[in-house]
Amino acid sequence: MQILGMLAVAVALVPAPKEQVWRAGACTFVEKNVRFTRDAALPPEGYRLDVASDGVTVASADDAGAFYAQKTLKQLAADGASIPCGTVTDAPAFRWRGFMLDEGRHFFGKETVKELLDLMADHKLNVFHWHLTEDQGWRLDIPRFPELVRYGAVRPESPMHGCRGTKGDYRGNGQPYGPYFYTAADIREILAYAKERFITVVPEVEVPGHIRALLAAHPEFACRPDLPRVPCMFNGVQDEVLCAGNDEAIRFMEQVYDEVCALFPGTYIHIGGDECPKKRWKACPKCQARIKTLGLKDEDGLQAWVTRHFTDYLAKKGRRTIGWDEILAGAPGTETVVHNWRKPKYGIEAAEKGHDVIVSNVRETYFSVPQGVSDDPFTYLSPKMRCTLATAYAFDPLAGMTDKAKPRVLGAECCMWSECVWNEYDLAFKLWPRACAFAEATWTAPAAPRDFADFARRMAVHRKRLIAAGVNCAPLD
Ligand code: ACM
Ligand code: ZN
């Protein structure tokens, strides 16, 4: 709701607050004019902002609420020397408002990650899902296992700029990529930076697929012993996966997760679990022996066993595991959070079974697919797909959910898979303004039908703020 008072004020907040009432008059915004108070009756992360001509009062029940009130003030103050008088009453629709960055395919580094965390906070996003391991690169230094970065964090070449880099469309650029990885000190720095911005960091270390870079370091844990010691150079799902029949491979992954838990003391660990081809397991005597010994039906049963093994392992360490929705096949305990990316039916099934669910609908939240703007210099992995700004704005994490399932939806994440994202300019162009639409879909969650024209009007103002701040935000056409 936006009520304009006598004075014609063009307020353009993104994400829109729940309620805003503007009056005649303005306050010259100076930071010392802000008074912070506590109101336990306000919801978590929520706030009330009163702007009077002689100063601003912020009320919130918690520090996060006061922080978000300041982010609202920052947008109001960006547009002029004074801010309009009025009242904003605000709180998030969803408690999980996430952004996933794939640094396995391309590595962006600490400074870009910090800039992203700042931008996330500006848009009231509060979960940074850090996808750190992939077929194409391992980005986590684990001193106990030095080969992981020695072999896994550097590849001999990448697809040539401008091609998608998939099997049929691969041309190598001949340029070594890396070594690129984060040290324990880097991670501590990022965690502290995120905490100051009320952002939870969720690391993702994949098992049993998307693990080719780990196998470059430790080919002894693959089903085939003759793997070259280099990460994958082209894009697409890889046949090489962890040998699930090898006890030492399982023990090794447990130790990797021990180290991940030491580096990331937070509650949530994402174990991936998506896209695990069964070709190698079908031909591997050890994997076949495991299937027989455990009385499993087939290779799908083996993946279910792997998933269950690691969710139980992390649960014993007091962590909550998140996995892409393939992990449902493993019937993990209901403390496991299911990250729905395939059809919505998997998210609904998970929620109805009692799992908390995070929704990342490919069509509406994968910002690695083309956004359909006319002037776009960048390459995309799925050139035929489209996720326009309007599509991103229409995203509803509760779409299709039954009344039983709805309370289980923690929220959502937008995802940046980086096969075709080469640098921070490319990344920013693909992320903004769609992530603004995503922020509104998860913070404000406007009722359907959503007023895209109103969002576009506000976005035109907000885009200028982003550009002025040096963000390579895509055009709005
Ligand atoms: C995924 O997009 N493979 C989670
Ligand atoms: Zn095997």
How would you characterize this protein structure?
Helix 2 (110-122) packs parallel to helix 4. The protein has 15 helices and 14 strands. It has 2 domains: 7-90, Chitobiase, domain 2; 96-451, Glycosidases (TIM Barrel). Strand 12 (337-340), helix 10 (344-352) and strand 13 form a beta-alpha-beta unit. Mean pLDDT is 95; it is low at 1-8. The strands form 2 sheets. The protein has an 8-stranded parallel β-sheet with strand order 9-8-7-14-13-12-11-10. A 6-stranded mixed β-sheet has the order 1-2-6-4-5-3, with helices on one face. The protein is an alpha/beta fold. Bound molecules: acetamide and zinc ion. Acetamide is lined by residues 274-275, 324, 341.
Quickly count the domains: 2
Which consecutive residue ranges, at least 5 long each, have pLDDT under 50? 1-8
Strand content: 15-25%
**Helix count?**
15
What would you give as the CATH superfamily of the largest domain? Answer: Glycosidases
Structural class estimated from helices and strands: alpha/beta
Radius of gyration: 23 Å
What would the average pLDDT be, to the nearest integer? 95
The distinct bound ligands, ions and cofactors come out as: acetamide, zinc ion
What's the CATH architecture of the largest domain?
Answer: Alpha-Beta Barrel
Helix and strand element order: EEEEEHEEHEHHEHHEHHHEEHEHHEHHH
Q: What profile does the largest beta sheet have?
A: 8 strands, parallel
Q: Trace the largest sheet across and list its strands.
A: 9-8-7-14-13-12-11-10
In one word, what is the shape? globular
What is the CATH class of the largest domain?
Answer: Alpha Beta
